[in-house]
Amino acid sequence: MFDLFQHDFVQNAFLAGTIVAILSGLVGYFVIIRGQSFACEALSHVGFAGATFAALVGLPGLFGMFAFTLLAAIGMGALGNRLRGRDVEIGMVLSFVLGLGVLFLSLYTLNASAAVSILFGSILSVSRAAVYTTLGVSMAAVLALIFLFRPLLFVSVDPEMAEPRGISIKLMSVLFLLLLAAAVSVTVQVVGVLLVFALLIVPAASAELISYRPLTTILLAIGISLSSTWAGLVLAFVGHWPASFYIVAITSLFYFAARVIRHFRTPRGYREPPHPSREVGTPIK
């Protein structure tokens, strides 16, 4: 197993997986407390169209995903609450975007495995240049989240009190969606468009079941994401199944384990706190 680390593709896979896992755990926490899982799924669909368009015009798929998802994030953030109650319209747009991706992919016939790589991830074929790009984007996103942490947490937990304090809810929404777009784009390399939910949502959801403290929950989410990614890569090298399958399976196991822990840790007569800033449940009166 240790001899495998002498190969460049193995090093690239672990480097890219580690970077993406850390970013996913951090961004995923805010996705959970803001209730924007659907936005994550929508951006992954848009990223599919971007990646296939980039392949069609001869550009790296990662750049296409960045361009398409960032534009979509700006549009979603600008529309804000006007998107609520428009499930049919949103579903139609996402279906159109997926169809557009299929069209681009059908026009791009030089590489038949492109669809599988985009849909289900291709972490074992990540180049060193893609690792550097992922590192740069992830570092910028992490620094931005550190800078925005307090106002973003305030807006996410109690938006009604945040606006009177001078914090722009729409600006925070747009900025976070831009960060989410960057996270989705780099995560697609690891698990693909169809499975991006596994790294961006499941580890953070698992951690949120165990802890209500923001920093503790974020660290748990990063730990679960890292453990799942590393274990999935190791199993992919020694086994015969894709790394994305192992990663998704392990994150699912973490989630079920967190559910069990939550069940036995919650005393009878207690209810969940109204927001993540609460550390313990409150008795039902």
CATH topology: ABC transporter involved in vitamin B12 uptake, BtuC
How would you sum up the global shape? globular
Question: Which whole number gives the mean pLDDT?
Answer: 79
Radius of gyration: 19 Å
- The share of residues in extended strands comes to under 5%
How far is it from the N-terminal to the C-terminal residue, by CA?
57 Å
Q: In the residues, how many domains can be counted?
A: 1
* Relevant CATH superfamily: ABC transporter involved in vitamin B12 uptake, BtuC
List the defining traits of the structure above.
single chain; mainly alpha; 285 residues; 12 helices; ABC transporter involved in vitamin B12 uptake, BtuC
Description:
A two-stranded antiparallel sheet has the order 1-2. The protein is mainly α and 285 residues long. The N and C termini lie far apart (57 Å). Helix 1 packs across helix 10 (202-210), helix 10 crosses helix 11 (214-238) and helix 11 (214-238) packs antiparallel against helix 12 (243-265). The model is unreliable at 276-285 (pLDDT under 50). The protein is 75% helix and 1% strand. The chain has a single domain, classed as ABC transporter involved in vitamin B12 uptake, BtuC, CATH 1.10.3470.10. It has helices at residues 8-34, 37-56, 61-79, 87-107, 114-120, 128-157, 159-162, 169-191, 196-200, 202-210, 214-238, 243-265, and strands at 270-271, 282-283. It contains 12 helices and 2 strands. It is globular and about 50 Å long.
How do you describe this structure in short?
The protein is mainly α and 285 residues long.
